[in-house]
Structure formats: structure tokens, C-alpha cells
Amino acid sequence: MLLYLYGPDSYRRNKKINFYLNEFKKKHASAISIDHFDLSTDGELLRFADFVKGQSLFGRGYKLAVIHGAEAVENKDLKPILNSLFDDKATIGVVSSEKKLDKPIHTLLQKSFKVEKFDVLKGSDFLKFLKAEAGEQGVALKPENERDLINLFEGDTWGLVQEISKIKLGAEVLKVDREPELFPLMFQIARPGSIDKKLSALAWLLEREEAAKVFNIISAQKNESLQKKMATYDAAIKSGKLNYEEALLDLTLT
């Protein structure tokens, strides 16, 4: 059996993976083998193939594989392994990807038992998510609190959930009027959107704040793809290939 989860919202993707892991453990508690594979790492494709073909040491041999990095391997090498899982009732493969995979694999995975897309949430969808997460953590928010959190974190589910956790522990709800534009503009330049608006936001920020401060605050956001991108910029800065202003400009233009 195959499950296909893709899209840029890594928080909700990972949460759904954990949901499937927990369900699998409950259903096959006495006969289970679970493993994680990052196919962008050398040797992982072979290890994944062995896992699918091999016999489990646990009972009837129920197995679950969580697969990341599928975009890093050749379609011709991966496709036969995934194909073998369609009729394998004892093995579940959960394929997770930030972007839609290349057409041959994406087309194949569209036939999966479950296909879920995790787009960046905006507007009413983000508000619905905010209410659900706050309710799950037992945090009561006033409408004005919700508006402030939306203004600060819209589209950033990792950041929002982290902030709700802080509120649960006793922190005050962040208010937009404490930093009228600073944080929203930082988030704006790091997200897809109008280049003109993003450039205006960057110019405002660099007039008021040190470039290193802006860079470090953006780097601290709990967003998997953004963290990887900022880590690449950080390495380039430390090696002297870029300065902070150039890294922020490149981020703004992408």
C-alpha cells in the first residue's frame, strides 16, 4: 500500500505522517517494523529496496516505510520498488515530498491509496487551522489575539504552533502594535509573492535593522524548506561568497 503526501507545508505533512505511524502501531502492535529513508543520502535507495523485499523479524511481517528525498533518485530506479507496494498488503510506504515529484513518479503515486496535498494555508483556511491547533493545546484566544497571530504568522504553520505552545506555557500573546511592521515584513520577503512588494519590504527592513539581525530572525523560523535555504545562505556568508544584504536580496527575489 502507498500513501502520497506532498506540498510546502511541512508541519501538516509531518503531523499526518505521525498520525499514520500511530495508527499503524495501534493496529499491528505485536507485529511491526518501521523505518525511515532519505533517498537523497547515498545507499538509502538500496536499503529501502531491501526493506521492501526482506522478511521482517516481527510476527506476520507488517512493515511501514517513511520515504523522503524521492526527487533525488532516478525514476527508473525508484518506480519498480514503489510499484511493488501497490499489491503488498503487509507493507505501507508513506512518500513525503515538499514539491510535487517528477511526472513519472507523481503520476504513479496519484494511484496511491491516499493522496494528500499540503499547500501553504492562507485566509480562512489559516484561521481554521489556528483555531484547531489552539483548541488541541487547550489555549483560549480572543478574536483580537487571533487577528494578531494571523498578521504575524499567516502561512507559517510551524511558527504559529510554536507560538501557541509558548502561550500555553504562560507567554503573552504577541501583538502587532509592539512591532507594527517588522516581523510581518520579515516573513513577507521569505514567502512567495509580489516581487515589488517583497523588495519594498526588504528596503524598509534594511533602513531600520541590521541585515544580520533580519537574516538570523528569518533563519530561526520553524519551516523545513526555509531552514534549508537559510543554511545554504549561511554557509555562503561564512565562506565569504555573500554578505547578509546579498543573501537577503537573493531570498527576496526567489
Q: How much β-strand is present in the residues?
A: 5-15%
- Outline the biggest β-sheet: 5 strands, parallel
CATH topology (fold) name of the largest domain: Rossmann fold
- Helical proportion, percent range: 40-55%
Helical stretch tally: 12
Structural class: alpha/beta
SSE order: EHEHEHEHEHHHHHHHH
CATH architecture of the largest domain: 3-Layer(aba) Sandwich
CA-based shape: globular
Biggest β-sheet: strands ordered side by side in the sheet: 2-3-4-1-5
Strand segment count: 5
Give the CATH level 1 class of the largest domain. Answer: Alpha Beta
Question: Would you identify the regions where 5 or more consecutive residues have pLDDT less than 50?
Answer: none
Mean pLDDT, rounded to whole units? 88
Radius of gyration: 21 Å
Supply the number of structural domains: 3
CATH superfamily of the largest domain: P-loop containing nucleotide triphosphate hydrolases
- End-to-end distance: 37 Å
Word description of this protein:
By secondary structure, the chain is α/β, with parallel strands linked by helices. The protein folds into three domains: 2-117, P-loop containing nucleotide triphosphate hydrolases (Rossmann fold), CATH 3.40.50; 120-175; 179-254, no CATH class. It is built from twelve helices and five strands. The protein has a five-stranded parallel β-sheet, with helices on both faces. Helix 3 packs parallel to helix 4 and helix 8 packs across helix 9 (195-208). The radius of gyration is 21 Å and the shape is globular. 27% of the residues are buried. The mean pLDDT is 88.
